[in-house]
Amino acid sequence: MTTTTQETPGSGKNRWTNFFIVQAWLVLLLASFFGAALAGIQLTLAPKIEANKLNETLEKVPELILGADAARASKDSGQQMEINRQYMTAGTKTYSVFKAEKDNQTAGWVVKASGQGYADKIELLVGVDETVNTITGLFVLDQKETPGLGNKIMEPDWRRQFVSKPTHLLLTAVKTKADGPGEISAITGATISSKAVCDIVNQSLNNLRQPLAKAASDKKKPSEKQQEKN
Amino acid sequence: MNYLIDIMLIAVSAALINNFVLYYFVGICPFIGVSRQIDMAVGMGLAVTFVISIAAFLSWTMTTMVLIPAAPLTAWIGGFFMSPEAAAKIDLTILSYIVYIFAISASVQFVEMYVRRFFPALYKSFGVFLPLITTNCAILFACLTIMSNVSGVDNPADAWDLGRSLTLAFFGGIGFTIAIVIMAGIREELDFCDIPPALRGAAITLIVAGILSMAFMGFTGVDTGLKNALKSDSAAQIDPKPIPKDESPLTSVIIGETDKKEWS
Amino acid sequence: MSETTSEKQSANDATRDVPVIQVGHSPHIANVSFTSRRMMIDVLIALLPVAAMSIYIFQLYAVKQMAICLAACLLTEAVFVKMRNHSFSLTDCSAAVTAVILGLSLPATAPWYVGVIASVVAIGIGKVIFGGIGMNLFNPAMVGRAFVMIAFAGVMAASGYESMHTGIDAITQATPLNAFKQMGISTSLKDLFFGFTNGSLGETSALACLIGGAYLCIRRTASWEIPAGLIAVVLIMGGLADIMGNASDWTVIHHLFSGSLLFGAFFIATDPVSSPITAKGKFIFGAGIGFFIMILRFFSGYPEGVMFAVLLMNAVTPLINRWTIPKVMGE
Amino acid sequence: MIFVTIGLAAGTMLVMALVFSYILGWANTAFHVETDPRIDAVMDALPGANCGGCGFIGCGEYAEAVVGGNAQVNKCPVGGESCAASLAQIMGVELGAALPYRPIVHCGAHYEDRLGRTEYHGEQRCGAANIVADVQGCTYGCLGFGDCVSACNYDAIHVVDGLATVDYEKCVGCGACAKVCPRNIITITPFKAERVLAVTCSNKDKGKDITKVCTVGCIGCGACARASDLFTIKDNLSTIDYDAYDPSCGADVMKACEKCPRKRIVFVGKSDSDDVAEFSGDVVEPDFKTTVDDTEWRG
Amino acid sequence: MAKKLEQFTGSGTFPKGIHPPERKHFSADAPIEVVPTPKEVLLPLQQNIGAPSKPLVKPKQEVEYGDLIADNEEAPISAKIHSPIFGVVQKMAVTTLPNGRHMQAIRIKAAGRQFTDEENYRELMGGKWPKSVVGYDPDEVTRAIHDAGIVGLGGAAFPTHVKIAPISLRVDTLLVNGCECEPYLTADDRVMRDIPDTIISGALLSRFAMGLKDIIVGIEENKPRAIEAIRKSAAGTDIKIAVLKTKYPQGSEKHLIKAVLNRVVPLGGLPADAGVAVSNVTTISAVARAVFRGMPLTHRVVCVTGGGVVQPKNLLVPIGISYRELIEFCGGFTKDAARILSGGPMMGFSFSDLDMPLTKGTGGVTVLTHDDIKKQKETACIRCGRCVDVCPMNLVPARLGLASRHGDLAMAEKYRIRGCVECGCCAYACPANIPLVQLIRMGKAQIAAKR
Amino acid sequence: MADQPTAFERFTQGILPENPVYRQLLGLCPVLAVTNSVQGAMTMAGAVLFVLLCANVIISLIRDLLKPHLRIVIFTLTIATFVTIVDRFLAAYMYQMSKNLGPYIPLIIVNCIIICRCEVCASKQSVFTAASDAVGQSLGFALALASIASVREILGTGMFFGFRVLPEMWPDWVIMVLPPGAFLTFGLLLGAVNWVAARKKG
What we know:
The structure holds 6 protein chains of 6 kinds.
Chain B: H1 2-17, H2 28-33, H3 38-67, H4 72-78, H5 84-87, H6 96-118, H7 120-125, H8 130-134, H9 137-150, H10 162-190, H11 202-217, H12 222-230, H13 232-235, E1 260-263
Chain D: H1 2-30, H2 37-45, H3 58-67, H4 80-91, E1 101-105, E2 119-121, H5 126-129, H6 147-151, E3 157-160, E4 163-166, H7 176-180, E5 186-190, E6 195-199, H8 207-213, H9 223-227, E7 231-234, E8 237-240, H10 251-259, E9 265-269
Antiparallel strand pairs in D: 1-5, 3-4, 6-9, 7-8
Chain F: H1 7-15, H2 28-33, H3 38-61, H4 68-93, H5 95-101, H6 112-122, H7 127-157, E1 159-160, E2 163-164, H8 179-201
Antiparallel strand pairs in F: 1-2
């Protein structure tokens, strides 16, 4: 540390008004030094952190749109998928929407939706096909449901129920065996969590169905078109 | 109305459901250290509530004004050196921890000195707790929660305003007070109990805290329930019928840049 | 030390020809007919109708569950008491009371380990750690039950009740509260009152609880203030909800008879050790439990809130005691 | 961009540090409150972690308690022994010249020496038995229920065969036993050596009455007083003038011990040392003193 | 239930309290007998609340019946002590009293001719007792009481001349306490039945001396004979009789005042603060004796009772007689005698040294059998609140006991330990057999020691 | 001032005799919060090690320049800086873990262990001693975390370090990974440690 060579000024001399500050020279020095150092670290690491955050979601997109097996297969075969993130405001809420394009064709959409669960917020990724008619996948990004009970919403078997459910129907969690078109059989003992997931899906899709369908129906790249509008 | 309900839910959640001490384990040190007498516990709880509110105000202000990207103050100063667009991107959130802890300790110390000098009686009953609070995780935790709700949200519209932040902080403090006062009452009682020597002191306090924590788990879901009860119509807003064919104009707007991800 | 002293002394006295004269402090007479042990036995007697009803409805399930809890509690108590070298033994019946209440508060189909773990936690963490009977600040049975409720949510929550084949055909699969909370189905009052419903072993029959509770209150083994405060608040809050709320056919009377409300009011909340000591305090205690039960029933994710409400109010009991020091005559 | 960000970060920190240190420095003088300088000294010696581990509300409170004499110096878990040592140094100035004080149990009757004991039913505590008549014949002697034992934090007093007996190896002289004894038969006495003489009886009754209730109690015969000036008979009880007490115990004193018909004048203290060894134990001054004179006239 | 008393503002009872077995049958029907003059008496120098007296006689000095032998001129709250026999003063002795006090005493050996039993009875009780105060003035009455060394004979032993004096205008009622709520004891009952006139005369005198308005005699309804006797004797005077519900501790002056007049004595205050003077029936009869006959307090009525004595009796005994003689006069102990009490089983003090002297305040000697005192072993407090339900002072005895046991004096004070009257209801009712009263007394002693 | 312990003593003391968690009861928030899995606990311990080591070294270097009334500020400043660094590194390279640990990484700032070690050791002793003290204390901390986390993870999920150690039929004690389990486990373990210590003493 270079600072060790400096001396403490002010002691024994006349006391000026900023005496306190002089006393605190070490604090000031350290503060600015640390501040600068941290800013440096921030600049170095920030992109990586951002990428991490995004990856967490993006990695799931193919699976949600194509289904796990197809996603793996296409990954193995080296196919590419271009994913664009957009923000869409619908109703009172703004959603992060990921548009997946494969071979310059809209392959589907993934909506990041969140809502109140049993214990805390549940964050979901809902995949829909390009025409926004059926659900293609569901993933739970974040939840704090009761372990062993509510957190079974994370289990693939349960989530699979949502696949290929029509988007125009409201999904309901039922305690009995699900046989209706819009019915999801609830996790035993965790009906509230199950309901919450259904509600989040319902609400987000209800809000976004129209705009997404509209965007999808534009054969041109929707993002550019939107920007033009702005 | 919705805003009020929001505030209320934040309050209930912070005070009871996700109690700082019993759910998030913050502020354990004073919870164990200063919970032997009810009077002390009340003083400590109120002092924490007071400081946590001040800290929340400071940290919210600092975060929104200086730290987050596009914060007005930073952007303004940055504007002298670069284009406004670039200046709006300056992200100082990495400084947040230092700024918060600095703000907390300085304000605590200032308040302590002030109270000690001008309200000696108040200091005796309440001010003595202040120095202990600087290292109380609960305060920093409140600041961090506020930060994550201000800068960590996907949607800038969801970012907390000052009111929500203060509510969280204040009721978090109240929750802390509730927990520590209950604990103090129990510990006064424990003095008369024939506890195995090895468990006396902190160990039995922790076990009691465990039982308390179990009891407070009963509140899980109360906020959801309250929300449903209060916003009973919000759930029904969703139209159960298929959407009519005549499509309303597109309401979506692209706000952010598109992030591209090459996935292979 | 004292034992040996008096033994020695008695030996000395035996050699004298005058009668053995001893000293002690006033009052020199006591009401010997009423002891702590007797109170515990009273509770067991009062639990008889409840236990009988549960055996009638759940048959072997109930017997098995209570037997497991009884064995586990007594064994745990014996082991811990020995470890702590305490002189008092199982004969004070408090462990048995804990065991029966615990057993009756479990779902009939809960696996064996639930009862065992609940018993160990109830006696160990709920009681012995605090120094044994009289010192436990929380209701041991409820500590044990809360522990397994959270630990084994899968078998203790709604699902725990649904996979059962009972002796009575009329019993629907879900507990009345669950059925109402999740599906809006209400059970008939008659079934609730007589107990032909599903639920924890002891909670189904309001009638049995009322009979046992009446016995306890008449014997003054349980303070009437606690159930009175509890039921009063439940009636008030349930009534308000009835008046304000949407026209559901789940009324305040359903609230009163369903779930473990009456069982809790008469057998759990009235545990003297973990409730306040003054009459006023007891009333506040009961009212607080009622308040929390209704809050949790209305809003929380759990269909039932008696256990949590009791634990919460146990926690504030020292504070209630402190705030309800009665005014001394002449003060 | 990079440099501006770094500059801004450093600047933000600098400005903040400036503002806070200025305000705090100013407040420090502007809101200055006069305090005991020792409190500041103790504060400096303490870690300042404000963790509350000492049981007090932060370091300041603990420092005040230490200076005010309400807390021991070794309570800080963070500072550990070194901190305790420096606190003792700061506070130690006053303790320097004090004599070590140790308790003496002024009763020498073991169980078989006590006559007229009655079967006693009730709370097995000295304080409780003391308010019941006729628990034992002697209304002054040790009751032997061990209130002092439970009061002792150092496991230094035990009831041996019906008589409270101090373990001087462990005793630190805190005086808790003397405080709690309902019959005030434990006194805190300056120990000029490891072992000192003591009269182990408190009975102020006349000799005839004492022989009825105790086989060993001091009958106030005055043999010791005649042998040495150190002893005086007060209220039928031999007492030692500890101000004049000399650890080397002259021949006359030893003669007094021999002369005592009931052998109530004995050495108490550490057992394995010589009679006149210099004292080397911990020095703790009790915050109060009791004397046999305070012994209550109760059954 | 709570039927209001006729004529009185009180309800005839007080909240809480207990109903212990009365067991008055042992001695209730035994008329007062006179104990023959003992060979020696031992007179402790302090038999009353307040300052001890100082001896006025020297060893070997001869004293006569009724001679003043000890007094304390300086202390206002003290009582004179008189010799109950003819005899010779011996060397000063030290004695312990059943309440644990340890004090000096004057021993007098009987010598010369003594009064016969008949003479004693006639002097002290027999004959006519005027029911008017004509010819006296208040000061004279007070002085006579002072000279007679009368103290409260109900147990508290507060010097009566301090109480019965024209003290304050606030006081308007003289409450004569004939409740005797203690189980077993019948001395007061017997006094009321056998010599009701002394009570009526004494009450009139006391009222006259204090300048009060009303006299109310409070008697529990389980003593119908006494009520009848007093009513008969009081005929023609304005003395009112309050028949009270039988409940322990009805005889406590605070609860008596509450029951009869519905007034409350402030915590730490005296009955005078509630405008009432309370006196026991035997005290009142001693007042009559002192004023009308000039007799000092040398004898009193004592009830020797319980299953542990062969022949329970009510006795007129000289003060200073040893318990041994009383027991022997009653035929000695039965085989299963277990505990001797000075006083009744609820508040009496146990002791074992039979050579202790009987003092002015002792109204009964109860000898309990092993069956009577059989208690279960103490178990842990389960906070059932029984003690709270029965405490007539509205305290929380369980908490007081807990605080005392753990030496938490601050908590004991917070729960108003000083409000405890040590009536014993809590310990009687306690299902865990915790010696609550002893613990509370221990706590009080600790608090006193700390001051 | 009494003799300061040597570097080696500092190192060994931290591990057991003056274990920061069990003996000094410091830094309890992370002890309770992140011990529902051993992995998380070890990450936390590593973070604490880094911060403590850096802070101790820096403070020890500048110990002669410290002023009494400003030393805590400087400690805090230093600690906060290193905590920020750890936090960002975790976010960058162990994103999932950083997400799991949530706010408890930044809460290291107010972890009493670090400020106490700065105060007790680093501000008085040489760099080497301070460093060994930091390592010792961190090891003690890690040990405590590991013990609690093992109990909670094994009982709560039947797994240890992510690997299943108990049979499949083991009913998971969900409560152990929830807040009550943290309190109860730590309370009981603390009692056990006290008991052993008391027995050792005699």
